[in-house]
Amino acid sequence: MSVHVEISMLQPFLLVRRRMDFPNQESLASMNQHRAHRSAHVPASTAVSSLKLSELISALSHALDITEGQPAGHCVRCCWIGMHIGRGIGMPEDQLWELYYTLLLKDLGCSSNAARICELYLTDDLDFKKDFKTVGDSLPQVLAFVLKHTGLKSGLAERFRAVLTILKDGPEIAQELIATRCQRGAEIARLLRFSDGVAAGIYSLDEHYNGNGKPEQLRGEAIPLYARIALLAQVIDVFHTADGKQAALDEVSSRTGGWFDPQLVEAFEQVSSSTSFWEVLASPTIYREIILLEPPAHEVPLDDDYLDDIAAAFGQVVDSKSPYTSGHSARVALYTDMIGEAMGLPLERRRWLKRGALLHDVGKLGVSNSVLDKPGALDRDEWEAVKKHAQFTEDILSRITAFSELARVAGAHHERLDGGGYPRGLTAENICSETRIITTADIFDAITAARPYRGAIPIPEALEMMGKTVGTALDPVCFAALKLAISRLPE
Asked: Do 351 and 308 contact (CB within 8 A), yes or no?
């Protein structure tokens, strides 16, 4: 992967050396106070007290939907379906609570195999994942899928080799991709403080009732109940969203006893006999209905520590998408905090901003790895696809009412002071200081982090590169704060 995604703001200015005097620590504080009127700060504690875990997770599940190439609300709709099945079989409230979060987070590991899919199939991982959810067990279906999704933009010889490899090693490839996804999803569920029951439900999502699933080839009731319900709910939503109620019913019927537990299918048929079940499933009000579905006796309070953990965990979901960005979100958060400290931001505000830094690239989950990991220059369409990630970030975070300001701050991290950035082409007067901090931290990490095709660029050289864009792309106060923060580090 080239660094075009992260350091695009630098490109027009790397040929011209700008001479600037950078402020010292005293003038940093003065300049930062002078700009303090730019944003009306809402204390983080106020936002936390009004936020529910169900609202936060259901909103962030949209990031998982776009990673899987699914229409917005896929995980939420699966939650609606699965919770009705769970209640239909008489699950107790504590199990329903775990089922609720298994359904919303069933695709937690979805980003971890995206790069490998692109590598093996020479394809767009988003289209691949979207259509893969419709494929059953029949050989004609599998062959048609492979031919439709392998190397369509590659040369004939390259495509032929890829198809042969997949047909020859298909079972091993499928096992690898699903095992990677399942393992990573379970790991992140635990980082989010969910129980082993939730983690196991996510890990076993792709097991089939007849024992022909993956990754452990579990059979019947050996498959965790949460996983059996989640897989059934997933297939119902995919076919209902694409082709309507009857298509979903037909697909469930054809896979009963194979993929699906017959008792769960019977429960689904009973609860889905209600007209309102399908009306809500297809309605925009389903987001509100899902919040109300969380078992109230088991609500978990959100505090700042838990919010930090959730932001860090979803940062890992983002960084898992590409082998070239491992640890990027955590490092950007660290540099953001260092810059904020050097600029004299209050601790509470720094903590709030660090969450934004952890989530600043969550929109990249909606961009194909065939673009993100492309080693050469991007064409116009590919560049337009990359630029969408900033807007995706804002869209995802703005679904969380308490994150409305953070959504604007994080979503603007590729804006430039001279108006040449994206997604909105904002100019200096409309870019708040918090966004400028994340931008500085993001570019610093993009340049100094090691890549497979090059070593890490030394800090002095990186600062020299960044200095050429101060005043046009980068904020002088933030850049000076970065230099000050670095100077404080031990040798």
From this structure: yes
DSSP 311-335: HHHHHHHHHTT-TT-TTHHHHHHHH
Give one DSSP letter per residue of 66-93, joined into a string: HHTTPPTTHHHHHHHHHHHHHHHTT--H
Catalytic residue among 364, 374, 388, 483: 364
Q: How far apart are CA 352 and CA 44, in angstroms?
A: 6
Quote the CA–CA distance of 192 and 180 in Å, as a whole number: 19
Tell me, rounded to whole angstroms, the distance of Cα 287 from its chain centroid: 19
Contacts of 383 (CB under 8 A, 6+ apart): none
Active site residue 129: no
- Compute CA distances 470 → 13, 21, 133, 208, 463, whole Å: 10, 11, 47, 56, 10
Q: Which long-range contacts (CB under 8 A, 24 or more apart) does 4-8 make?
A: 4/377, 4/378, 4/386, 5/364, 5/372, 5/386, 5/389, 5/446, 6/442, 6/443, 6/445, 6/446, 7/443, 7/446, 7/447, 8/414
What CA–CA distance (Å, rounded) separates 477 from 32? 7
Render pLDDT for 184-228 as a digit per residue (tens, 0 to 9). Answer: 999 999 999 999 999 999 999 999 999 999 999 999 999 999 999
- Distance CA(400)–CA(361), nearest Å, equals 16
Q: How far is CA 347 from CA 290, 342, 350, 351, in A?
A: 34, 11, 5, 6
The predicted-structure confidence for 230-269, as pLDDT tens digits, reads as follows: 999 999 999 999 999 999 999 999 999 999 999 999 999 9
Give the DSSP letter string of 462-486.
HHHHHHTTBTTTB-HHHHHHHHHHH
